[in-house]
Design goal:
Radius of gyration of chain A: 18 Å
Strand content of chain B: 15-25%
Number of strands of chain B: 13
Structural class of chain B: alpha/beta
Largest sheet of chain B: 6 strands, mixed
Largest sheet of chain A: none
Number of helices of chain A: 12
Distance between the termini of chain A: 53 Å
Largest interface: A-B, 36 and 34 residues
Oligomer: heterodimer
Strand content of chain A: under 5%
């Protein structure tokens, strides 16, 4: 049973981190980017390429993973978001982020190949059952990421600016906040965090070009469960989804995993549309 | 089973016979100089690229061997190739183009079931001979698609051999089925269940899993708790299969896993946390992969590999069956064409139905007017994944 719980927590951590990445971008742009899962894919493949193919040290792979995520984050904002949100109030970003996500995935498939490839062990350790690094790395990083983001939003100027833009972008701009620059910075941060999640979970997911789509969907479910805009909500939403997945298999069978996960989302959206930790916005008329 | 012979030698003999006029009545038609055009659809890019590139190489080497030997009836073979990129819509589009615009004599491919299924009506409607490289049963129907012939085994044959070996040879009764949630995985699960029922057995555990799920520990635990004494897996997603083997190894559970040929791929070994996790893993292979006591492959396979040893290295990772399957498409068509003496699809179809056993290096094929599947069950065997040798072969599994 311990393995079932730990496996579920590790999955939950990965989904929770993806939900946190959604949140960071959403705070400054109100965009739920379809490319969110691809940050982890790019980061994972970048590390595997540098460490296993080129034989570079792991720390170089880790740094390059973060840089690749940051660059991809910035490109996402520049290519798929900036112009789109400037010229249209409609949700055209759905198409532009989906298009960019697809292009990146196909390009990685062509360059890297379509077969999953191994991801390096991060610390020297024989497999240790429920205490193996492939489980505790995503769990630990997810907790650290959620806590770090809370501190960032509460105690740093940049974080407060993100919140100000999230509350009212027009008012923030009127008070002299460079909202476009803040949005670009938030996408770079999101890219770095996303790539870091790909690094932490690489031993579970392998370096796989098709990872982003699945992760993007699961991360979105976690986000909706926890409530858009809430860091602890994203983490708890991920944990609930991960544990539900494991327990569903254990008690009912693997074939019910998706049905129960999506069913849970639908029920929650009906009963509590703002999610577990989200706040309902009041619209002044 | 008749022992396969070296293709190049046999070609020469047959050509010599044709040269002596043995082909008689059909000779005038085949003696034209115009090349015989082979349409060829293979997904050499996209998710099946590794396997498809190896098939493509085998296909082209078979054509090259025939052309080097003077062609068939003095006519060279010409390949008109299209890359479907694993996209069924592209496969259909290219099939139409090749059949209606490129004036091909035969269409070989697409080489996976998902792409091949939607091309059947087009090719059969155009009355073109069709060598089909997918394993799903529905691809072959001599009544609906009279010009379609399969150039590999069916999925049902794999499963039949797997179940028979698990139950009769390995004496296991508590079978757990773990498959991915693709159409192929679900179909395979149902077929395994059907074959188990012929032994009055029901699976003790069944799991249909998203192949991208990052961890399958819970599925393995559940199978273990259900008392499984053997697991059969049905997926061609290497990441999923590797996760399954890793989860089994991490639980120190030495239950045998019997599965789809994907489980034999070298790519799987790279994804395993420890090499020992590949022990006690049996995959569906072919007799053409079985080495003798001296480690040598069957003569016809060895002859092909020796002849093309300079270019074979990039394709060895996909395994011998991949390039030999591509080779088989040409080999089978050539056998029918030689007997028919004329590329007219109706004549080649009748020739293939009556030519008897075609001993391709891939394995024995035997078609009839009511059976266009061809591949014989005795061409399939279970091999041990960890026992692969440098030449791509395996010793016969000791079960």
């Amino acid at each position: 049973m311990l393995l079932v719980i730990v496996s579920g927590l590790a999955l939950g951590g990965l989904y929770g981190m993806t939900a946190l990445v959604y949140n960071v971008m959403y705070s400054t742009s109100k965009v739920l980017s379809f490319g969110t899962g691809q940050f982890a894919m790019v980061g994972g493949i970048c590390t595997a390429f540098l460490v296993l193919n080129l034989g570079l040290p792991l720390w170089v792979g880790f740094l390059a993973c973060l840089v690749s995520g940051g660059v991809f984050g910035w490109l996402s904002e520049f290519i798929a978001v900036r112009r789109i949100v400037a010229v249209s109030d409609e949700h055209l970003w759905v198409l532009s982020t989906l298009a960019l996500s697809t292009i990146v995935q196909e390009a990685m498939g062509l360059w890297w190949g379509t077969d999953p490839t191994p991801f390096p062990r991060v610390v020297t350790q024989e497999f240790a059952g429920a205490f193996d690094q492939k489980f505790w790395l995503p769990i630990g990083l997810a907790v650290a990421m959620a806590a770090g983001l809370e501190l960032f939003y509460r105690h740093s100027m940049l974080g407060k600016l993100f919140i100000a833009i999230s509350e009212d972008a027009f008012a923030a701009r009127a008070r002299g906040v460079a909202t476009d620059r803040m949005r670009a910075i938030s996408y770079v941060i999101a890219g770095v965090l996303g790539a870091m999640s790909g690094f932490a979970a690489g031993q579970l997911t392998f370096a796989d070009f098709s990872l982003g789509t699945t992760l993007g969907l699961s991360g979105f479910i976690a986000l909706a469960l926890g409530g858009i805009g809430s860091s602890q909500g994203a983490l708890i939403g991920g944990v609930i989804l991960g544990l539900m997945t494991s327990f569903t298999t254990h008690y009912f069978g693997a074939q019910y995993q998706k049905t129960i996960a999506i069913g849970l989302l639908v029920i929650l959206l009906v009963v509590r549309p703002q999610g577990l930790f989200g706040t309902q916005r009041v619209r002044h008329v | 089973m008749t022992q396969p012979t070296r293709p190049s030698l046999r070609l020469t003999r047959r050509l010599a016979l044709q040269g002596l006029g043995a082909a008689g009545l059909a000779a005038p038609a085949i003696a034209q100089n115009k090349p015989i055009r082979l349409g060829w659809i293979a997904a050499v890019t996209g998710i099946f690229a590794t396997n498809a590139q190896a098939q493509d190489w085998g296909f082209r080497m078979a054509v090259q061997d025939i052309n080097d030997a003077g062609g068939i009836g003095g006519r060279k073979l010409e390949v008109v190739m299209r890359d479907s990129a694993a996209d069924p819509a592209k496969a259909v589009s290219y099939a139409k183009e090749l059949v209606f615009n490129e004036n091909i004599d035969v269409l070989c491919g697409p080489i996976n079931s998902g792409e091949a299924l939607p091309t059947l009506a087009t090719v059969s409607g155009a009355k073109k001979l069709h060598l089909i490289g997918g394993s799903v049963e529905e691809l072959i129907d001599p009544v609906k698609y009279p010009f379609g012939f399969r150039n590999l085994n069916t999925n049902g044959q794999w499963i039949k051999v797997a179940v028979k070996t698990m139950v009769e040879t390995m004496n296991h009764r508590k079978v757990a089925i773990i498959n991915d949630n693709t159409g192929y995985g679900v179909l395979s699960r149902d077929t395994v269940t059907k074959f188990l029922a012929t032994y009055d057995l029901k699976p003790v555990y069944t799991a249909t899993v998203d192949p991208n799920k990052p961890d399958v520990t819970d599925e393995l635990l559940k199978a273990r708790n259900a008392g499984a004494d053997v697991i059969t897996e049905w997926s061609n997603a290497t990441g999923f299969v590797a996760r399954l083997l890793n989860a089994r190894g991490e639980q120190a559970w030495d239950v045998p896993i019997v599965g789809h040929p994907t489980i034999l791929q070298a790519q799987i070994a790279k994804l395993l946390t420890k090499p020992s996790y590949w022990e006690n893993v049996l995959g569906l292979g072919y007799k053409h992969e079985i080495v003798d006591a001296d480690g040598k492959l069957p003569a016809s396979v060895q002859a092909f590999m020796d002849k093309h040893k300079d270019g074979i290295a990039p394709y060895m990772a996909a395994g011998l069956p991949a390039f030999l399957q591509g080779h088989a498409a040409v080999y089978i068509y050539a056998a029918g064409l030689r007997k028919a003496g004329d590329p007219d699809p109706v004549k080649v179809k009748e020739a293939l139905e009556t030519v008897g056993v075609i001993d391709a290096p891939y394995g024995p094929f035997e078609y009839s007017p009511t059976n266009h599947n061809g591949f014989r069950d005795d061409g399939i065997v279970l091999v041990e994944a960890s026992k692969q040798q440098a030449n791509g072969g395996y010793p016969l599994a000791k079960l």
